[in-house]
TrEMBL record:
<dbReference type="Pfam" id="PF01513">
    <property type="entry name" value="NAD_kinase"/>
</dbReference>
<keyword id="KW-0418">Kinase</keyword>
<dbReference type="InterPro" id="IPR011386">
    <property type="entry name" value="Put_ATP-NAD_kin"/>
</dbReference>
<dbReference type="InterPro" id="IPR039065">
    <property type="entry name" value="AcoX-like"/>
</dbReference>
<dbReference type="Pfam" id="PF20143">
    <property type="entry name" value="NAD_kinase_C"/>
</dbReference>
<dbReference type="GO" id="GO:0016301">
    <property type="term" value="F:kinase activity"/>
</dbReference>
<protein>
    <submittedName>
        <fullName>ATP-NAD kinase family protein</fullName>
    </submittedName>
</protein>
<dbReference type="InterPro" id="IPR017438">
    <property type="entry name" value="ATP-NAD_kinase_N"/>
</dbReference>
<dbReference type="InterPro" id="IPR016064">
    <property type="entry name" value="NAD/diacylglycerol_kinase_sf"/>
</dbReference>
<dbReference type="InterPro" id="IPR002504">
    <property type="entry name" value="NADK"/>
</dbReference>
<keyword id="KW-0808">Transferase</keyword>
Length: 367
């Protein structure tokens, strides 16, 4: 069955992740100043290269907004329906999607993050299914494949896989950078659905029992902390409680580093973490999965990059989550950007869920 796929790429998506910026919208210059490298094109090529021999008619945008990635993936026959200016933005995404609609595509596949998802939804609404190839920093919307291989499967199943209504979230990046999560439901897009291949929307857990569980987890982690070990503390309210238990102010939506009961780096980027690991090779990483989505790595904590994880040692990754979060998160995922590292994780994590308590949770590798 021949399908027509509209493909577009946000060239700046995800650049803020490893350098400690909570997104890239409006801060591209700062991301570049900190040494950020483009990420989305590589993620797109990873998907497209596996689809180059499929019976697909590709509609796209010129140059870095789509055509270049298709060519790099070995797809040299596509129809360019939109030509953006040199510097691309939200208006270009919307204009390209309207051109895809006019061409009658069966699916709009986009490579980006939550901001790109919102712009795509603005243009197509519920007229055509959409699918996100994850390349942003946070990706709280439920329109993204769990990783690039899952996106390949979903694109191949266009027209056969059922579609479901999935949340598009509007994230205030300014608030996010200041350590406050301000998210609202923007709308429901139609998304092709196969189990374990589409991520869920983020959920926030604030019940009283959850708060008590965070305290119990923090008490246990503090009890076993070693004074001569560097602790890289990931983003989230559960990990923040560990910092608070030490009497330290956490970066709620960033990554902090602690040693000997003191902060040695606050809101650290990948470069800072690697430098600290040179200085303090004995280290552990504490991370918590995103509620309901289940991502332990690759969503909102790209500062803890594959290079950081390998340097600290995968065996030194500690995963923490409250029982309530785990009950609503039946499966865990990793999408670090390094497929070999993701496979090394294995098929489960032992997740600290209370004081001297843990649950084993399955890790899904879609392909």
């Amino acid at each position: 069955m021949r399908r027509a796929i509209g493909f577009l790429l946000n060239p700046i998506a995800g650049m803020g992740g490893t350098v400690g910026l909570a997104g890239t919208d409006g801060v591209v210059a700062e991301a570049l100043r900190r040494g950020a490298a483009p990420r989305s094109a590589g993620r797109a090529v990873q998907v497209l290269s596996l689809l180059k021999d499929d019976d697909i008619t590709w509609c796209t945008c010129s140059a870095p907004m789509g055509e270049d990635a298709l060519i790099d993936a070995g797809i040299d026959r596509s129809t360019v329906l939109y030509r953006p200016a040199v510097s691309t933005g939200a208006a270009d995404t919307k204009a390209a999607c309207r051109a895809f609609l006019e061409a009658g595509v069966d699916l709009v596949a986009f490579c980006g993050g939550d901001g790109t998802a919102r712009d795509v939804f603005d243009a197509v609404g519920r007229e055509v299914p959409v699918l996100g190839i994850p390349a942003g920093v946070k990706m709280y919307s439920a329109v993204f494949a769990v990783d690039p291989p899952a996106a390949v499967t979903l694109i191949r199943e266009t027209g056969r896989a059922p579609c479901r209504d999935s949340e598009v979230m509007d994230i205030d990046e300014g608030a996010y950078r200041s350590g406050r999560l301000a998210a609202r439901l923007y709308g429901y897009a139609r998304v092709p659905y196969l189990p374990e291949r589409i991520q869920s929307g983020k959920q926030v857990f604030e019940q009283q029992d959850e708060e008590r569980a965070k305290d119990d987890i923090a008490a246990f982690i503090n009890e076993v902390m070693l004074p001569d070990t560097l602790y890289i503390i990931g983003a989230g309210s559960t990990t923040a409680r560990i910092m608070e238990r030490l009497g330290l102010a956490p970066t709620l939506l960033g990554v902090d580093a602690v040693r000997g009961g003191e902060v040695v780096a606050r809101n650290a980027d990948e470069k800072t973490l690697l430098s600290l690991l040179d200085r303090y090779p004995r280290a552990k990483i504490v991370a918590s999965p995103i509620g309901a989505q289940g991502f332990v790595l690759g969503r909102g904590n790209q500062q803890i990059s594959p290079a950081v994880i390998r340097k600290a040692g995968l065996r030194n990754l500690i995963v923490v989550a409250t029982p309530g979060k785990l009950a609503a998160t039946p499966l865990l995922y990793v999408d670090s950007g390094d497929a070999a590292l993701d496979r090394e994780v294995g098929d489960s994590f032992l997740v600290v869920s209370g004081y001297r308590m843990a649950q084993r949770k399955r890790v899904v590798h879609p392909m």
